[in-house]
Write a structure and sequence with these properties.
- By secondary structure, the chain is mainly α.
- The protein has a domain of 69 residues.
- It is 62% helix and 0% strand.
- The chain has 13 helices and no strands.
- Helix 1 packs parallel to helix 3, helix 5 packs parallel to helix 7 and helix 11 packs parallel to helix 13.
- The chain starts with a helix and ends with a helix.
Length: 168
């Protein structure tokens, strides 16, 4: 709430409250976005304690790589994917192991970053019917025999697989 007071009432930085603002990573991030409107180096160690805030800060404030925060961003398959896609704009080999630990984010990484099959991640991708269907449809662009048994366990995704992949 303190960042909103600075933004809406003071309409400027509020130095007397910054120590309190920096006790909460989310409040710190929004204070940077809404009030500081640029890098705030004294608060970056607070923001980088949270993978999603670190991603957003790198993307929207730094507007590029933030090496000091990459270790925390890599703790989340989701935010590691977004960082690779939107900040690095390509392969992020150091984060691939964590990304491939989650079927959905592994599928998306294959589709959006690798732009093709990712054999090392297929064993994980095929554990989830939705991710397996989407991988077959959008990455392999055809039948994925090894994943059909898991796709069959979900009637909605199996129906989509039959319609869009098998064309039956």
């Amino acid at each position: 709430m303190t960042h909103r007071y600075a933004r809406d009432v003071i309409k400027a930085r509020w130095p007397e409250a910054e120590a309190i603002i920096k006790t909460n990573p989310e409040c710190t991030y929004w204070y940077v976005i809404d009030v500081v409107k640029g890098r705030w180096p004294e608060a970056e160690t607070i923001i980088m304690t949270n993978s999603y805030l670190a991603y957003w800060y790198a993307r929207d404030v730094i507007k590029g790589h933030w090496p000091e925060a990459e270790e925390i961003i890599m703790t989340s398959p989701e935010w590691a994917f977004w960082y690779a896609r939107d900040v690095i704009k390509g392969h992020w080999p150091e984060a691939e192991e964590i990304i491939m630990s989650n079927p959905e984010w592994a599928y998306r990484y294959a589709r959006d970053i690798i732009k093709g099959r990712w054999p090392e991640a297929e064993v994980i991708i095929k554990t989830n019917p939705g991710s397996a269907f989407e991988y077959a449809h959008y990455v392999i662009k055809g039948r994925w025999l090894e994943a059909e048994e898991i796709i069959k366990t979900d009637s909605i995704f199996f129906n989509e697989y039959c319609k869009n992949v098998l064309k039956t």
